[in-house]
Amino acid sequence: MGSQLEAQIQLKGYDGAAITEIWLQARPDWELNIPGSGSLERTEKMGKEETSNIDKRHDHASQMSQKAAVEVVAFNHMWNTDSSSHRRLQQYERFMQQHERFMQQTPAFVQDKLVDNILDQNVQIDPSTGFAYSVWRDVPIPFYLSIYFFEVMNPEAILRGEKPVVAQRGPYVYREYRPKGNITFNENYTVSYRVYRQFHFDPERSAGNESDELVLPNMLALGVAILAEKLSPFMKVMFNAAMKEFNQTAFFKKTVQEIMWGYDDELINFLKKLFPNLLPFKDKYGLFADLNNTDTGLFTINTGVDDINKVHRVNTWNGANKVNYWHSAQCNMLNGTAGEMWPPFMDPSDTLKFFSPDACRSLELVYQRSGWTFGLPSFRYIAPKTMLANGTVYPPNEGFCPCRESGVLNVSTCRQHAQIFISHPHFYNADPVLWEAVGGLHPNEKDHALFIDIHPLSGIPLNVSIKLQLNLFLKSAKGITITGKMQTLLYPLIWFDESGNIDGPILDTFYTFMVVIPRVVQCVQYILLVLGSLLVVIAGILGIILLQQDRNRKLCTENTGDKSVYSEKTKMVEVANGTVVTESYL
């Protein structure tokens, strides 16, 4: 099996990511020899008595330690591709080389326990830990919300039943702040809090100004028109007269600021007086009017103090352990975390689950590949095609129906029954019928696929790009003149990219806490083990020397006594003539 593994590595050309994936699939008792990089021989022999005392998270830590052994080779792949990280790579390689020598001489359960203790302190949500708590409370990563609009290029033709044609405008970028408030630690190792969102326009990153005017569908008027289709003929006449009185048209021209944060309209004031509880918004109507300076609900998550494997996982949202928007227990579940961080010791077989209040449901991303992000090892997670598939294509999603074509999610049940659908930008990964029905759409993975790059050992995201699209359901409502003869379709309103990455001082701090300190501690332990071994050897040598000296002393004493007796005897030997033999005198 070892030769097969070596052959796989040779076939892949020593690619760092590929070596890492192969290593994770290999058994720890295989022997790995990589030509050109020296011999990396790793043998882990642990008896049943030892392994019985190591729990699951220790096994995860051991896997990550074994993976670290191959990361030295992976750095060769990065060496010439990221010159800005050259110095950090040199430092990290030295730590990894020391870590390899430590791995060869230290029992596995000692390494696992050491890594566990370090990560527990730097990951769990505990005010006494300092670093981990401060990062969770005030996320230091700058987030940006980039908005792209689909401007209508042929509004009159659409009313005549022709195919809509759109042009993408933007991005209009907003700096996003997410301070936490009402933080309360509970007795069951959970913490409750609210996340408040604030958006500030960033003209330097934007391709235009908030004063730009765009032609877009009149979302409010068209939404009310679909509801009015169920009215009696007399009420429809009254409705059409009201639309004409308040100068409502199917398409209008508004500024970016008005569309985003709300605008005044005579129809809004009229509907509020006539139906006080009909409209879900308070003052103005806008796509993001209810998001700025508001919170995402009351989250209660696990702190990980009692079990690090549960850290960041959602316990309740708004006091409930499920939602009631959908039609099956599975679809209403609160799965995973709140989308900010995840439990440590991640493996490629793990999925990335989180609950999204904006999507009103739990989402699940899947592992795509291993790589490097800002000089740190990372796993990339992406959205599977089944995430927004309809119940016909993917039966577990039946609870999210009634459904339309695959690739869109109807969120009207949690958006006051507004005919809003979410999808990937440009209907990427959706049924081709959707994007073929609208001119000007060009879905592709590079521009429209969402992803999260995460540090697998700590569960902290390094680079995030969440991309989604809002779509409005359009149709010709019978008896309602404002809708004309327009086709029945999903019209793309906007798509947004909510992105952020770890950089600057926080990257250096994270690198120190999550990479440098654990490796230094391991190297220090290695040095202490060496010093301890040297002391044992020195003590043994000194003991041998003392024993040898004592043995020589006794031997000399015995030899001296024998020689004295012999000398006395020779003195007394005389020959017949009375002379003494002096030759034998000592």
What does this molecule look like?
With 586 residues, the chain is of the alpha+beta class. The chain has helices at residues 2-11, 16-25, 48-51, 56-78, 86-105, 108-123, 131-137, 155-159, 219-228, 233-245, 256-261, 266-274, 432-436, 445-448, 505-571; strands at residues 32-33, 39-40, 143-152, 166-177, 180-185, 190-201, 213-217, 251-255, 294-302, 314-317, 352-356, 361-373, 376-382, 408-410, 420-423, 451-455, 460-474, 489-501. The protein folds into 2 domains: 2-126, no CATH class; 128-503, no CATH class. The strands form 3 sheets. Strands 3, 4, 5, 6, 9, 10, 11, 12, 13, 14, 15, 16, 17 and 18 form a 14-stranded antiparallel β-sheet that branches. A hairpin with a 4-residue loop joins strand 5 (180-185) and strand 6 (190-201). Helix 4 packs across helix 5 and helix 6 packs antiparallel against helix 15 (505-571). The radius of gyration is 37 Å and the shape is elongated. The termini are far apart. Mean pLDDT is 77; it is low at 1-58, 60-85, 91-96, 98-111, 568-577 and 579-586.
**Which shape, going by the Cα principal axes?**
elongated
Largest sheet: 14 strands, antiparallel
| Count of discrete alpha- or pi-helical segments spanning 4 or more residues | 15
- Class from helix and strand fractions: alpha+beta
Write the layout of secondary structure elements.
Elements: H1 2-11, H2 16-25, E1 32-33, E2 39-40, H3 48-51, H4 56-78, H5 86-105, H6 108-123, H7 131-137, E3 143-152, H8 155-159, E4 166-177, E5 180-185, E6 190-201, E7 213-217, H9 219-228, H10 233-245, E8 251-255, H11 256-261, H12 266-274, E9 294-302, E10 314-317, E11 352-356, E12 361-373, E13 376-382, E14 408-410, E15 420-423, H13 432-436, H14 445-448, E16 451-455, E17 460-474, E18 489-501, H15 505-571
Antiparallel strand pairs: 1-2, 3-4, 3-18, 4-6, 5-6, 6-9, 7-8, 9-10, 11-12, 12-13, 13-16, 14-15, 15-17, 16-17, 17-18
Helix pairs in contact: 2-4, 4-5, 4-6, 5-15, 6-15
